[in-house]
Amino acid sequence: MTLQASADMVVFAGSLQLAEEGVQAVLPAIDEGQLAGALTDRSAGHVLAPKANYGLLTTPPHPADE
């Protein structure tokens, strides 16, 4: 419901299991039309753009690349 209301992020309190269940529910909700994929793409951009601007999206080298 939080993502349907256009929130860019969801904060989970409680158990790790609850958070994992929430994350795993996102893709089926998009597939079933309960959540707009374009909306989640926009939200991801809102969250990732500032991180990219501050250089926080660096990817560690893959062990095979070393």
Structure in words:
The chain starts with 15 loop residues before the first helix and ends in a 13-residue tail after the last helix. It contains three helices and no strands. The protein has helices at residues 16-24, 26-31, 37-53. Helix content is 48%, strand content 0%. With 66 residues, it is mainly alpha-helical.
Furnish the topology, listing elements before pairings.
Blueprint (H helix, E strand, L loop, with lengths): L15 H9 L1 H6 L5 H17 L13
List keywords for this structure.
single chain
Helical content stands at 40-55%
Low-confidence segments, given as residue ranges, are: none
Query: Structural class, from helix and strand content?
Result: mainly alpha
Number-wise, the strands total 0
Oligomer: single chain
